[in-house]
Design goal:
The chain has 247 residues and is of the alpha+beta class. It has helices spanning 5-28, 64-83, 139-148, 164-190, and strands spanning 35-46, 50-61, 92-103, 120-133, 153-160, 193-210, 219-220, 226-227, 231-245. Helix 2 (64-83) runs antiparallel to helix 3.
C-alpha cells in the first residue's frame, strides 16, 4: 500500500492541472472566426406628394361665450373654404382648441396690504386646424383662401410622402446591394471566401425638402402664389459582417 501512495498523489495533481484548461476551452467556444465588415450609405430622392399645413384663429371677447362665438364664426368660414378645394374630411383635423383668461393688471400694494384676487376681464379662444393636402400644387391657393376667410395664424408647411415606407425599403435595398458588392470585391482582392453574414445593422431617415436648383424651383399655383416643394430625401445605411470561410 505504501508503494502505491506516490502514484495516487501524482495522478491527483495532474487532474487539478488539466481540469481548468478543459473548462476554459469549453467556455470560450473555440477560436474566434475571422470576419470582413463592410458599410454602405445612399439616398433616394422624391418630389413630395402631399403637404401638411396648420392654420389658426385667435379671438378675444369680454365673455367666454362672446369669444367662442367669434371664433366659431370665422372657423366655419375657414372650413367651408377648405372644403371648396375638394379636400377629404379625414384630411382636415382640429389639432388644438384653447381658452385663456385675460386678467386686469394688478396695482402695486403698499404697507403690507393684501392684494385682491385677480379679476378676469376677458377671454382668448384659440382654434387651429391641420390640413393634409394631397394635391401640393394647390397649396398657394389654399393659403390665400384660408387667410382671406379670416384665419389670423399660419404655422407653416411640412412636406411629405404618402407612401414613405416603400421609399425607405427602396433605399435600403440599394445600400444592401452596394454593401454586398463591396464585400465580394474585398473577398476577391484578399483571396478569401466569404461565409455567412453574422451581423446586420441598418438605419434610414427622412430628410426634409432641399431647394430644387432647376428652372422649376418655384411652382406657380392658380392663385399666383409661389410654392416650392423642393425634394425629399430618404437616407439609408447598412453595415454587414461576413465570416471568412475556411479554405
Amino acid at each position: 500500500m505504501k508503494g502505491r501512495t506516490p502514484m495516487t498523489v501524482v495522478l491527483g495533481m495532474l487532474l487539478l492541472v488539466v481540469w481548468p484548461v478543459v473548462a476554459h476551452a469549453r467556455d470560450g467556444g473555440g477560436p474566434e472566426a475571422s470576419t470582413i465588415t463592410v458599410s454602405a450609405t445612399g439616398r433616394v430622392t422624391r418630389v413630395p406628394d402631399h403637404v401638411i399645413a396648420t392654420f389658426g384663429m385667435e379671438t378675444v371677447g369680454r365673455s367666454l361665450a362672446d369669444a367662442q362665438r367669434r371664433n366659431h364664426t370665422v372657423m366655419a368660414k375657414v372650413l367651408e373654404r377648405l372644403r371648396s378645394f375638394d379636400i377629404k374630411p379625414e384630411h382636415i383635423q382640429t389639432s388644438s382648441f384653447t381658452v385663456t383668461p385675460q386678467y386686469r393688471p394688478s396695482s402695486p400694494r403698499s404697507g403690507g396690504a393684501i392684494s385682491p384676487p385677480p379679476e378676469i376681464i376677458g377671454y382668448v379662444v384659440g382654434n387651429t386646424v391641420t390640413v393634409d393636402l394631397r394635391k401640393p400644387e394647390q397649396m398657394g391657393a389654399v393659403i390665400e383662401g384660408v387667410l382671406a376667410a379670416g384665419a389670423n395664424q399660419f404655422h407653416g408647411l411640412r412636406w411629405g410622402l404618402v407612401d414613405e415606407r416603400s421609399v425607405q425599403v427602396e433605399a435600403l435595398k440599394q445600400v444592401v446591394a452596394a454593401a454586398r458588392e463591396k464585400a465580394h470585391m474585398l473577398g476577391d482582392t484578399l483571396g478569401v471566401k466569404l461565409g455567412r453574414i453574422i451581423f446586420v445593422n441598418e438605419k434610414s431617415r427622412l430628410v426634409q425638402p432641399m431647394p430644387r436648383l432647376t428652372t422649376m424651383a418655384a411652382m406657380e399655383t392658380d392663385s399666383g402664389a409661389p410654392v416650392s416643394p423642393g425634394e425629399i430625401q430618404v437616407e439609408a445605411s447598412v453595415t454587414l459582417v461576413y465570416e471568412i470561410a475556411p479554405n
